[in-house]
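Suppose a colleague, Dr. K., hands you the sequence of a protein chain of 177 amino acids and asks what its three-dimensional shape might be. Before reaching for any lab equipment, you can write down a predicted structure in token form. Begin with the sequence itself:
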Amino acid sequence: MSATTPTASVSGTGATRATKRRASAPRAANSSSSAAASPSSTQRKKPKRAAPPEGEPKVITTMEDFRERVHLKVQEVPAGKLTTYGGVAAALGSKSVARHVGWALRDGNCEAEGTPWWRVVNAKGEISYRSDDVEAAGETSGSKQEDRLRAEGVEFAARRAGDTRKIANFSTLLHEF
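The predicted structure, expressed as tokens, is then:
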């Protein structure tokens, strides 16, 4: 009988546990040495981000600065055209801050600053749900954002029960920054 093979006759004894440890120890050593030779998929290096263009500040310097830059960028979108949260974020230098664009547009000062917040939709071409939008909705659609877009000539796909507010011909309405 080998010292590395546990047997049924000694199961439950300290000898069996020690034997099992010895049997598994070489495998652990082999697996760690092979991992050191080639990096695993979890050890991938992150790609380096491109530096912002010369003279451009980082995407977020302060939240107030970021909010102001979002508002200015959205003001570039003409009536009847749309953009996405990710499109605004990419135009500001980083697609990864799309959610922050939504937060910046939700601050309540859009109307006072003349920012057409209703022209920004999600990447699927749908109006993102906002409880304050539904509560302040007009008589026709149940959404203030949808009413404003319809007034600018934006058409919506036919709705079925449970459908979201999907914009018809979404890709042709996208504004390029």
